[in-house]
Amino acid sequence: MFLDLSNEAQNVDAASLRRVERIGFELPVRCKHGVVRSTVMLKDLTPYGARIDGLDKQRIGEPLTLFIPGLHAKTAYVVWSEPMSSGLEFDHPLHQSVFETLVSDFAIGHHRKAARRPVRRAA
User: Which domain holds residue 46?
Assistant: First the structure.
């Protein structure tokens, strides 16, 4: 099998390779990495992972624990890292209803409106 490494193949849009769309957040969350606890900014979220800002460059594969409001501690592993920004993959994906609730409660404005559930009114 021949692997095409031409410029066209190298310029594939990374977003088109994602499993699901990233949802934008601006949510401070607590994070534990090793014995160090800190506050980081949750910048985007999918059921499978997240991007956080606020930590020095992390080692690929390093486990972190995120404390997201309304959830038990969530273990994730670093899949990419740059200075002050890291991409994480959760050890277990978020349940769809949990993910939808987080989007509804904490996502950046335009995503919150799209995810909002219908209001039930009492008779």
Answer: 19-115
